[in-house]
TrEMBL record, chain A:
Domain called CheW-like: residue spans: 577-713
Keyword ATP-binding: yes
UniProt-listed SUPFAM superfamilies: ATPase domain of HSP90 chaperone/DNA topoisomerase II/histidine kinase, CheW-like, Histidine-containing phosphotransfer domain, HPT domain, Homodimeric domain of signal transducing histidine kinase
Biological role: Involved in the transmission of sensory signals from the chemoreceptors to the flagellar motors. CheA is autophosphorylated; it can transfer its phosphate group to either CheB or CheY.
Source organism, top-level taxon: Bacteria
UniProt keyword annotation of Cytoplasm present: no
Protein name: Chemotaxis protein CheA
Sites bearing Phosphohistidine, chain numbering: H45
Enzyme type, top EC level: transferase
Recorded catalytic activity of this chain's protein: ATP + protein L-histidine = ADP + protein N-phospho-L-histidine
Enzyme Commission number: 2.7.13.3
From TrEMBL, chain B:
UniProtKB keywords: Phosphoprotein
Record has Metal-binding as a keyword: no
Superkingdom field: Bacteria
Response regulatory domain: residues covered: 4-120
Protein name: Two-component system response regulator
Coiled coil: none
4-aspartylphosphate modification, residue list: D53
Lineage, opening ranks: Bacteria, Pseudomonadati, Pseudomonadota, Alphaproteobacteria, Rhodobacterales
Amino acid sequence: MTGSIMDTFFEECEELLEAMDAGLAAIEEGDQDAETVNAVFRAVHSIKGGAGAFGLDDLVAFAHNFETVFDDVRSNKLQLDEKLVQLLFRASDHLSDLVTCARDGGEVDQAHHDVLISALGEYIDDDEEELVFEPMGVGAAFDPAPLPSLAEAKEATFDIRFHPLKEMFDTGNEPYFLFQALSDLGELTVRLDDSELPGYDAMEDGESYLSWELTLVTSENRSAIEAVFEFVEGLCELSISSEGEEEADADALAALNAAFGLPPVEEESAVALPLEQPVPDAVETPAPVDAVAEVEVTPVPEVESEKVAIKAAGSKKESTKSSGPKPTLRVELDRVDRLINAVGELIINHSMLAQQIANLDVSDTRDVETELEGFKNLARDIQEGVMAIRAQPVKPLFQRMARIVREASAATGKTAKLITIGETTEVDKTVIERLADPLTHILRNAVDHGIESPEARAAAGKEKGGEITLTAAHRSGSVCIEVKDDGAGLNRKKIRQIAIDKGLIPENAELNDSEIDNLLFLPGFSTAKEISNLSGRGVGMDVVKNAVTALGGRVNISSNPGQGSVFSIILPLTLAVMDGMVVSVAGHTMVVPITAIVETMRGNDDMINNLGADGTLLSIRGSFVPICDVAGSLGLRSNTGDEPAGVYLLVETENGDRCALAVDDIHDQRQVVIKSLDGVCGNVPGVSAATILGDGKIAMILDPESIVTASSSAAVFDTDRRMSNAIAS
Amino acid sequence: MKTKVLAIDDSRTIRNLLAACLEEAGFEYHSAVDGREGVDLYPDLAPDVVITDINMPNLDGFGVIEELRGDGINSKVPILVLTTESSADLKARARSAGATGWITKPFDDDSLIFALKRVTGAVA
């Protein structure tokens, strides 16, 4: 039970940390109104509260310092200036690290921790810290059932005299319940003292006339009895005396008083406890009588008038119910995934059914087909609905990226600001989770290599601070994430030279700008002369590409010298189902993602142009596109070369080049359920996943991108060159 | 009849902890995510006791107590303040608004039940 509550706590921490970051970002932007500041305070406060419940002392202690500073901001004791805001950002990042450590284990950087603690400490008055911070528990004085002392619990008789002041009744405290709680401690005798009760005529409404004399025989000590009266302290006259009481109990009382900041009481057998004067005034809320009266004469429904009366009776705030968050339901991810699987099976089932019906020897299947179409539409609706459950806005991810940019800027001494656009764009949860690493890498690169130093920027006539824009948008069935910086742009000459030096391309390779830019994604490429400890952590942009490809997406880069670079990541909306074109290749049925296909065409002799010994080009409306034989590149059949294939699928590669995939035939276009091959077989170049078709057979889902590159990336470059030569001659 | 508790806290963690503890102890547990929702829920729910956090959006714990004790609702049920703040003046402020008692976070199950017992007499 505690485990699952702890899970809840960490989930909640994620949300609170996001809220905190969002609040701090708003504050940095100049929005320093009370509600924004309060929201951040509450976030820190809630983290502290929850952490306390699980005994996460480090987290509590740090959150406490953070909170204390923020409380001063809240009460205007501290002014938010640039320096403080930056400190708060760092503290927020560190708090996030502490949460992660508490959840996953591990250690935070202790030196960094101490630096932040002392930096926060500079904003905290010494006495303030002492006063508020009470680390764990409520203190032994309030322990509900103190263990009997080891020296065998001795019974003692306590005489208690209790007279409630009338103010006690305004707080909802009832003497009866207190006596009940006392009777749990031992044998209790209750005597009512009504001697103060005046005659009926002299009685005043609400006045307290009764007193009680209680005798308690108990093995508990005095502090247990005092704990019972904790809430009414100051609201009653109370005296507790005993005969067999141990001396040690006086110490307990001293501790109790110390807890309330009271002077130590002289040791004596009876101690009176009217500790504070009650504060009766504030209880009577000065309700504006005329306002209430007005309500009463206004002919509005009763419920309505009651509401108005409540407002008149003291609350300043408007009801915010209507503008509150939409009700939500939290569901385990497993359940959603089971549903997604079931929907996948439903779609497969539909395909099978359709195929069975087609195979039936029935003359008129029109009615059945209409119903089947309805079935298909419903399945699609359900699928979209389920996908929507998994979809989450990219906002939290983007907010984390703000931290990356902050840290990268600090580490490089550059000034860079992250601007986010399209934060509400919703993307599959898994995609968001797996995007964090590639995005982090791209952003670090953007700060490290993209944005110039302030001096260089000034020299180029730019603002000293660089800008990185992170955009998310839905684009025709895909999600597009773009990272754009306004830095120097890619140094193509340098990139080309490095690629040649590392043997990634032949020296005589003729590459266009876009091809040069995309060299960055080749494994083993790194432009940094010396590996900077920021972006160059021994991984190159190929890791980014692999991560994105694993999500069924592609990444592209474009750059303008002097104006900056743009990294685009294009991802499918869902990881579970896609629209595919079912084709046959050398007797095998395969699926090509629709999103990759630009155009399809039947092949004929006129379209084929030979180029050199083994190159073929497809002529489409006056332009030439290299042909890639799918069967050949998958090793299913040797490349026959100049024979026209049945069908060409014109696909666009990630750098915008086109290629014609030669296949034997097209069968169908349909939704297919993506079944991962992970753990079933290793990475097969050209194949991204598998699916189950209507006839129950398994078909491979092709990855056009890798087929094109795998078939012969050098040959494509080579072909390109010869093609341009051919066109020129 | 189970004792009906309305817990008002914006932290899901705390609500879950309260729910686990109170339901196991035999209380009927209801919750609200902020002060406003708590006050809105109160009339129809008619709980036997209210537990409220102090720092909350929309309406804070002091606001909750004031509205519940105010002329509109005129509640007489015990209200326990659940707070990490242990400072005496916050307690005094809560009490002067009409709070019955307080539970200091982090609470353990025993001290929570003990506090409830002292204000409602409910034996768990």
